[in-house]
């Protein structure tokens, strides 16, 4: 890379980072006015090996929610089991709060072209390790069987 390209990269990097910070987490804007009924169902992030099922009664089951990752994105710690969930608000943004065992995991709520996404930042936010969960099924939340690993 020549010196002109390096200068351009150094000048434009802060601008790009500033713009992306305004857009939202992972480039997705925060979802507004999300109702519990919109979250009921099974959510998955294949790249993270995560499945979270949210039931209408406030109960939840989860498999493989990462809680720690290395810089290269390798998951070093996961949680799973049965628990509860609710929508909460933090800094004027809605969040999905899932309690499994002694762990409380906060997921952000985002939109992508009108579609609702559930996002998890794993470990230090500066490391940019993210899991993006998408709805797999709404019907599975009503099934009597729990998700197993």
Describe the 3D structure.
The chain has 149 residues and is α+β, with helices and mostly antiparallel strands. 17% of the residues lie in helices and 47% in strands. The protein is built from two helices and eight strands, in the order H-H-E-E-E-E-E-E-E-E. The protein has an eight-stranded antiparallel beta barrel. A hairpin with a 2-residue loop joins strand 4 and strand 5. The protein is globular and about 35 Å long. The N and C termini lie far apart (47 Å).
Describe this structure in a few short sentences:
The protein is α+β, with helices and mostly antiparallel strands and 149 residues long.
Largest sheet: 8 strands, antiparallel, barrel
Helix-strand makeup class: alpha+beta
Helical segment count:
2
User: What's the number of extended β-strand segments?
Assistant: 8
How much of the polypeptide forms β-strand, as a percent range? over 45%
The gross shape turns out to be globular
What spatial order of strands do you see in the largest sheet?
A: 1-2-3-4-5-6-7-8
Q: State the low-pLDDT regions, or none.
A: 5-23, 140-149
Portion of residues within helices: 10-25%
Which whole number gives the mean pLDDT? Answer: 80
Question: Radius of gyration, Cα only, in angstroms?
Answer: 17 Å
Quote the distance from N terminus to C terminus.
Answer: 47 Å
- Multimeric state: single chain
- H and E string: HHEEEEEEEE
């Amino acid at each position: 890379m020549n010196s002109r390209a390096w200068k351009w990269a150094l000048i434009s990097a802060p601008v790009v980072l500033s713009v992306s910070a305004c857009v939202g987490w992972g480039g997705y804007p925060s979802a507004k006015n999300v109702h519990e009924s919109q979250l009921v169902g099974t959510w998955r992030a294949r790249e993270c090996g995560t499945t979270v099922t949210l039931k209408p009664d406030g109960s939840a089951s989860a498999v493989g929610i990462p809680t720690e990752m290395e810089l290269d994105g390798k998951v070093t710690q996961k949680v799973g089991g049965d628990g509860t969930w609710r929508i909460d608000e933090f800094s004027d943004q809605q969040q999905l709060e899932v309690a499994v065992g002694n762990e409380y995991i906060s997921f952000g709520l985002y939109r992508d072209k009108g579609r609702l996404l559930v996002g998890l930042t794993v470990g230090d936010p500066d490391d940019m390790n993210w899991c993006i969960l998408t709805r797999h099924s709404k019907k599975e939340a009503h099934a009597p069987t729990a998700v197993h690993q």
